[in-house]
Inverse folding.
């Protein structure tokens, strides 16, 4: 399959509905991340600004067809600590600008290649973990118990609860109205996923998520009139800041405090933001490319530059730092988005809705949006994914499953780090086993053993080669053939030479080498 990127109108019928769904998903996440990051309701709009920038600016400059950027839950703790350290939001905005400049420099220096060093098992584990996290974290919102912000991904929550105690409280303090709205919403989403619905012309263009939101608003108004005890309000609703005048709206935008340029903490925080945001982005890029039905590849260096310009822009006008985000990106893919126009459309709708209809958006129940995210989570963590990974063997399955468990019990970056340790262990073990081919022939004059070295022999193979040489039978003949090797590390050459000149003669072993250079043994005999 391929996509005609130059035919704007043929793709718009897919990109516009998808952009609308991403907007509906992004709106409460932007607000939730902003509240959690700053702890200040007056700064909620900083999340919307980041969402706009992530959609319009990063979306326009990025080479990612389906990746969606915006404020990320993974940066919440860093932002909170940075605000405490710097003492003002305006000084923090300067650190966001610094982070953006560093990302642009990293992109120009081709640092995006780092993204290619994450094994497929880790990326798939990350996707599955995000799916499970979405399901576990959205159930409380679906039940009407919203003690934590929408979009939180960490196991230990800011409110003193964790993922599992929050589930217990959700059942204990559930809201009948929220349960009805979320159940109806889920039913509609499942219905819209059926093939026969796709054959109806109207539903090809109007996404199911929009019907879900409209239905949720209608049901809540119905409850308010007929069953007031079931009606949702306050924390159970979208809470977008509403400006009473144009001047108040523009007061939501803020400028960096450039007088803080001589503050060392600004640069330390900027560097931290740049590293973490870039890592999260590169991980998301890898994951999004794997989910892309058209299997397109994102240029990672261009992505870092786009993210950097996005953060510079966001910092200059009062927004939170942005990264590419897997939840929004996967929602984009699930909704049928084809090109980056869907990303740009979502950012544009964020801007227009914040300008013209903020009061109406606050009628949307979070229970409806939780249902949308529950479906996204289910699609990210289907049973078929686990079955497929299990069939690949433990070298793929173990890093995959460890990554899932680690992310669920810590957070995204820590979980990825733990998964990488397990993946590297299996890589080293495989490397240890397959650094050479061992052939043994029995002759009257003694055994003849041939070691044919692999194409790439690195210092990682030192242990296996050294152990094999140590275990050769005394009095045998050994042929070490490096003629097929493109590269043999000095460490391995040193071991072979030391064995040939010193160990082998003492054990009456005859050694012949083919295609192996002599090296100077530093500090040797």
């Amino acid at each position: 399959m391929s996509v005609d990127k130059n035919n704007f109108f043929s793709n718009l019928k897919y990109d516009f509905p998808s952009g609308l769904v991403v907007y509906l998903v992004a709106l409460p996440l932007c607000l939730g991340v902003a509240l959690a990051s700053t702890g200040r309701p007056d700064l909620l709009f900083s999340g919307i600004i980041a969402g706009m920038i992530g959609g319009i600016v990063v979306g326009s400059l990025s080479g990612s067809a389906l990746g969606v950027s915006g404020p990320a839950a993974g940066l919440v703790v860093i932002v909170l600590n940075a605000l405490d350290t710097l003492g003002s939001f305006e000084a923090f905005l300067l650190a966001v600008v610094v982070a953006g400049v560093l990302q642009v420099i990293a992109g120009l220096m081709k640092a995006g290649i780092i993204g290619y060093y994450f094994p497929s098992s880790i990326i798939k584990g990350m996707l599955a973990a995000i799916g499970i996290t979405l399901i576990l974290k959205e159930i409380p919102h679906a039940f009407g118990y919203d003690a934590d912000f929408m979009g939180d991904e960490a196991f230990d929550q800011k409110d003193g609860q964790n993922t599992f105690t929050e589930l217990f409280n959700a059942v204990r303090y559930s809201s009948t109205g929220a349960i009805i709205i979320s159940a109806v919403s889920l039913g509609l989403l499942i219905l819209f996923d059926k093939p026969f619905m796709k054959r109806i012309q109207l539903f090809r263009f109007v996404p199911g998520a929009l019907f879900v939101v409209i239905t949720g608003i209608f049901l809540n108004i119905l409850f308010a009139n007929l069953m007031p005890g079931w009606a949702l309000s306050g924390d159970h609703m979208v809470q977008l800041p509403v400006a009473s005048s144009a001047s108040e709206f523009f007061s939501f935008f803020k400028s960096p405090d450039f007088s803080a340029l001589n503050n060392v903490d600004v640069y330390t925080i900027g560097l931290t933001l740049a590293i973490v945001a870039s890592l999260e982005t590169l991980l998301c890029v890898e994951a999004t490319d794997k989910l892309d039905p058209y299997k397109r590849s994102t240029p990672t260096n261009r992505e870092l530059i786009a993210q950097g310009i996005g953060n510079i822009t966001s910092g200059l006008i009062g927004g939170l730092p942005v990264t590419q985000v897997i939840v929004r990106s996967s929602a984009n893919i699930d909704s049928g988005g084809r090109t980056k126009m869907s990303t740009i459309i979502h950012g544009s709708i964020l801007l227009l809705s914040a300008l013209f209809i903020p009061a109406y958006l606050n009628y949307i129940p979070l229970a409806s949006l939780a249902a949308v995210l529950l479906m996204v989570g289910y699609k990210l963590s289907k049973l078929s994914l686990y079955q497929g990974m299990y069939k690949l063997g433990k070298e793929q399955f173990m890093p995959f499953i460890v990554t899932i468990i680690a992310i669920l019990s810590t957070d995204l970056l820590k979980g990825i780090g733990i998964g990488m340790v397990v993946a590297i262990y299996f890589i080293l073990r495989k490397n240890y086993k397959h650094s050479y081919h061992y052939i043994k022939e029995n002759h009257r004059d003694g055994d003849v053993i041939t070691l044919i070295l692999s194409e790439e022999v690195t210092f990682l193979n030192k242990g296996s080669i050294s152990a094999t040489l140590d275990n050769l039978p005394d009095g045998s003949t050994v042929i070490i053939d490096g003629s097929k090797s493109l590269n043999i590390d000095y460490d391995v050459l040193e071991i072979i030479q030391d064995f040939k000149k010193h160990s082998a003669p003492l054990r009456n072993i005859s050694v012949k080498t083919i295609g192996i250079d002599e090296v100077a043994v530093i500090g040797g005999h």
